[in-house]
């Protein structure tokens, strides 16, 4: 199996808003297999920065579920709620270099400026509170936003191929710290990936459109860019992504090997034995993953 330099470090980073279900098992298994197939380390980070949406005990429940599947992290689990000092430092750095600024706009105000957007299209921030446009206009600051650089952001995904997005046009200056004082996902994930030395991000394809924003933050903060691999999604009967929000049930802990086998099939791994014990099955799955993905690896850092 190939070994890369710097050493491979991957992660599984669920938000503990509900127990693991079929879709999240696919993401967990895919990230674990990729780390093992490339002789790397696999970390688990619980992204509980949005504390009101993370009931007590669910993080521990997810860790227990991973143990049932035999997916054990190689280091201590990280909790975002305990690393907020990292985000404070990063935001202060961006502000000092005029790469972040306070914003007074509400969602209602932004929605009123974009009446023609579809239900599934996120609000695009037009730069209303940029300092060169008058700043807060005498209103109190609510959030902090990142000053998005102009131009099209390009990157390469190991499964999806060449990708690009005009972040200014499609997203605008995005939030780093929310109006309620909580840290935004984009800043937290970038800072934590940098702090943990993550070289490979393997996650669901619903998060692919976050990648250009995260690359821009990595560049602004002087952090290396990891490789990206966005996995196929598991869909609910209505065609939407299977998620906790649409009632996805926890996976069947009574049959962990069957759960793993189904997840492997979603990842394109076929021909794995159904009668093996869990350890042997995982070892064979690692070999199958290595055979399937070894030709898709670009240099770790762009």
Automatic annotation (TrEMBL):
Binding residue positions for ATP: 244
Cofactor: record remark: Binds 1 zinc ion per subunit.
NCBIfam families per record: PRK05710.1-2 (NF004313), PRK05710.1-3 (NF004314), queuosine_YadB (TIGR03838)
Alphabetical UniProt keywords: Aminoacyl-tRNA synthetase, ATP-binding, Ligase, Metal-binding, Nucleotide-binding, Protein biosynthesis, Zinc
Family assignment from sequence similarity: Belongs to the class-I aminoacyl-tRNA synthetase family. GluQ subfamily.
Motif ('HIGH' region): 14-24
Molecular function as annotated in GO: ATP binding; glutamate-tRNA ligase activity; zinc ion binding
Biological process terms in GO annotation: glutamyl-tRNA aminoacylation; tRNA modification
Domain annotation Glutamyl/glutaminyl-tRNA synthetase class Ib catalytic: ranges: 11-249
A single Gene Ontology CC term: cytosol
Keyword Lipid metabolism assigned: no
Cofactor(s) the record lists: Zn(2+)
Name the UniProt record assigns to this protein: Glutamyl-Q tRNA(Asp) synthetase
Protein function: Catalyzes the tRNA-independent activation of glutamate in presence of ATP and the subsequent transfer of glutamate onto a tRNA(Asp). Glutamate is transferred on the 2-amino-5-(4,5-dihydroxy-2-cyclopenten-1-yl) moiety of the queuosine in the wobble position of the QUC anticodon.
E.C. designation(s): 6.1.1.-
Species: Inhella gelatinilytica
Binding-site residues, Zn(2+): 103, 105, 125, 129
Binding positions (L-glutamate): 11-15, 47, 185, 203
Domain of life, per lineage: Bacteria
Encoding gene per record: gluQRS
């Amino acid at each position: 199996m190939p070994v890369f330099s710097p050493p491979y470090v991957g992660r599984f980073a669920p938000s503990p808003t509900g127990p693991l279900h079929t879709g999240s098992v696919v993401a967990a298994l895919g990230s674990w297999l990729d780390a093992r197939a490339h002789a790397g380390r696999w970390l688990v980070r619980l992204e509980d920065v949005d504390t009101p949406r993370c009931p007590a005990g669910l993080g521990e429940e997810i860790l227990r579920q991973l143990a049932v599947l035999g997916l054990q992290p190689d280091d201590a689990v990280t909790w975002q709620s305990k690393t907020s000092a990292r985000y404070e430092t990063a935001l202060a750095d961006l502000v000092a270099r005029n790469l972040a600024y306070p914003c007074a706009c509400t969602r209602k105000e932004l929605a009123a400026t974009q009446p023609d957007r579809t239900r599934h299209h996120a609000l695009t921030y037009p730069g209303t509170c940029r300092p060169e446009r008058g700043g807060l206009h005498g209103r109190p600051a609510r959030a902090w936003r990142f000053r998005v650089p102009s131009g099209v952001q390009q990157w390469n995904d190991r499964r999806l191929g060449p990708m690009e997005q005009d972040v200014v046009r499609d997203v605008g200056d995005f939030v780093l710290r929310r109006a309620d004082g909580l840290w935004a996902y984009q800043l937290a994930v970038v800072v934590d990936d940098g702090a943990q030395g993550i070289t490979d991000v393997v996650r669901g394809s619903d998060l692919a459109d976050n990648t250009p924003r995260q690359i821009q933050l990595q560049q602004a903060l002087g952090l290396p860019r990891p490789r990206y691999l966005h996995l196929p999604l598991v869909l609910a009967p209505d065609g939407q992504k299977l998620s906790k929000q649409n009632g996805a049930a926890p996976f069947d802990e009574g049959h962990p090997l069957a759960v793993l086998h189904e997840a492997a099939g979603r990842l394109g791994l076929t021909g794995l034995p159904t009668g093996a014990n869990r350890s042997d099955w995982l070892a064979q799955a690692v070999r199958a993953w290595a055979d399937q993905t070894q030709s898709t690896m670009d240099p770790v850092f762009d």
